[in-house]
Design brief:
By secondary structure, this protein is an all-alpha fold. It has one domain. It contains 15 helices and two strands. Strands 1-2 form a two-stranded parallel sheet. The longest helix is centred in the middle third of the chain and has 30 residues. The termini are far apart.
């Protein structure tokens, strides 16, 4: 069972006699002020949530399902190039919207307040090989609680990449660029395997029964996804002589979705300016310290409203990490207020256009392949 909105947001106890180290050396009083100001943004948006937000997410779901329907219908005639390109475009767009603006955000509990069990974090299963339950554990609970804390946030390199200088270098890290290049088009598969937590099983920190249970979920989900995209749909397309072209179309749509998701996620966590932290940095961490870490450990992407929409508003990664359970359509409204607070307290607010952020993330992949 997924945690409620209140349970998803980490809570903290402040030990005033032993303040946690912070990279800006903000005083305890300043950190308390920071907590109050960010909490005020949360309270304000929570109070504003209503019919307009519900209409928004329902319109997005309708758009996504329409794109998927047109895409799948086009694939029935995909031996004709115009239908193939139309099908790939609609399917890729639909899968991106389902994963990023709908699935990711629904699974964070952003729409649980509507009490609509069709779009609730405890019932939604997304169009992604990784089962929702495993992803919520590794993403919502682990990553968002311990963002960029090396040794606790397993997303720092996903156990296959060296993405921080403090991580020990091994000869296998020379393959950093090769591994990342392979991960990008197969990102959903990488996340699914990552969520099984084989590394923890091998370390003896995850019981074999739990690992096998998670693996069984992944294989079951893989079977459903494969049957839908690569068995049933091509079978129907075979009636028009389009079976082979439809398979190629579904492969292309999934690869496009994976490449986009990979780019957005890496731009939000690994460009220059996205800081990492040690386990010592989070000792006795107060809520103000947690807010500071989220702001400094994330990076935004500058762009148009359409770009923000297609990223699932994860282009506002800083705001998302500060308020992971607030509706995604509110991130653009929140961003100027967050930036103003960061400027007031001297907190770096890392943001840049997509090409720049992609370049910096990949540059880090290449740089940290070396000792």
């Amino acid at each position: 069972m997924t945690a409620t909105l209140e349970e998803q947001t980490p809570t903290f106890e402040l030990e005033r006699s032993r303040p946690t180290p912070n990279p800006l050396n903000l005083t305890e009083e300043k950190l308390i002020e920071l907590e109050v100001k960010f909490d005020a943004i949360r309270d304000d948006i929570t109070a504003k949530r209503g019919d307009s937000d519900a209409r928004y997410i329902n319109r997005v779901i309708k758009l996504q399902r329409s794109l998927e329907m047109v895409g799948r219908a086009s694939m029935l005639f995909s031996k004709h190039k115009p239908f193939w390109f139309l099908g790939v475009g609609c399917l890729a767009g639909g899968k991106i919207l389902e994963n990023m603006e709908i699935g990711h955000n629904v699974l964070h509990g952003q729409w649980d307040w509507m009490n609509d069990m069709e779009i609730h974090s405890t019932t939604w299963e997304w169009d992604f090989v990784a089962p929702a339950s495993g992803w919520q554990r590794t993403h919502n609970e682990t990553h968002h609680t311990w963002t960029n804390v090396v040794g606790k946030d397993r997303d720092v390199g996903y156990n296959v990449l060296r993405m921080d200088p403090s991580q020990p270098w091994r000869p296998a890290n020379l393959l950093n660029p090769v591994i990342n290049a392979g991960l990008a088009p197969m990102f959903e598969w990488g996340i699914a395997i990552y969520d099984v937590e084989f590394d923890q099983y091998l370390e003896g920190t995850k019981p074999k029964e739990a690992m096998l249970k998670d693996l069984k979920r992944v294989l079951k989900k893989f079977g459903r996804q494969s049957a839908k995209d690569f068995v049933l749909s091509p079978l129907l397309a075979s009636l028009t002589g389009s079976a082979k072209s439809s398979i190629k179309g579904y492969v292309a749509a999934n690869v496009i979705r994976n490449l986009w998701a990979h780019a957005v996620i890496f731009c939000g966590h690994f460009p220059d300016g996205a800081e990492t932290f040690t386990e010592e940095d989070i000792e006795n961490e107060s809520r103000g310290h947690w807010y500071l870490r989220q702001a400094m450990g994330s990076a935004n992407i500058d762009g148009s409203k359409f770009m923000h929409f297609m990223t699932g508003n994860l282009s506002f990664q800083i705001e998302h990490h500060l308020f992971p359970d607030l509706p995604s359509n509110r991130m653009a409204e929140i961003a100027p207020r967050v930036k103003a607070i960061c400027e007031e307290y001297g907190i770096p607010y890392t943001s840049g256009p997509l090409p720049k952020q992609v370049f910096e993330a990949w540059r880090k992949v290449f740089r940290l392949a070396l000792p």
